[in-house]
Amino acid sequence: MKNVVAILLASIVLVAGCSQTVDQSQIVKRHRTLYRVNSEEPFSGVVEQNDLNGQLSKRYEVDNGKLNGILTNRDLRFL
Predict the structure, then answer these.
(1) Number of Cβ within a 10 Å radius of residue 11
(2) What tens digit of pLDDT does each residue of 19-47 get?
(3) Whole-model pTM?
């Protein structure tokens, strides 16, 4: 019985820790809520944007279509 509980708990933690990471171009904003393109459900996951060199320039977390957590934005003025 303890093994079943341990496996169940590990499965829940593993699934909860997994989130989608998408490019900024796949996200649209409708009525102050973020959605994936052609989706009716508010987006939950991580959004990233790369600069022209392919380096990460922006990253933020979204939960149920709203900004959740830290917005990381690389300032390009000092490059």
Answers:
(1) 10
(2) 799 999 999 999 999 999 999 999 999 99
(3) 0.69
